[in-house]
Amino acid sequence: MFGITRTYTIWTWHGEVLDQPTTSRGTNYVEEWMIDHLENMIRVVGEDNFRRANLYDSLINDSEQPLYPGCTNFTHLSATLKLFSLKGRNGWTDKIFTELLELLKEMLPENNTLPIRNYEAKIFL
Fold it and tell me: With a threshold of 0.70, does the pTM exceed it?
């Protein structure tokens, strides 16, 4: 009725993509910050709460565990976070995400630690 609002820049729900600069590791700044500050985030939420549920040790381990033997680019945690980030930014359904995980699991080397279903990935995080 009044035309496009003058403050409109990018609305990701219409398929527009935010230009996010990449770092030397090939990740965007938000993802790198999440990976680099995992311990701080856990500390803020409460290490005791994470330890009671054994989540602290699990998250630390997953942040150090390579996605597959010999992989230097991704850990179990970073790969899962990146995939969830794609899922959210692109509005993928749980079914589509599960199909992608199943395909990636087959494409990666045999001993990869990628979750195979959306449900497993959610529980992990």
Answer: no
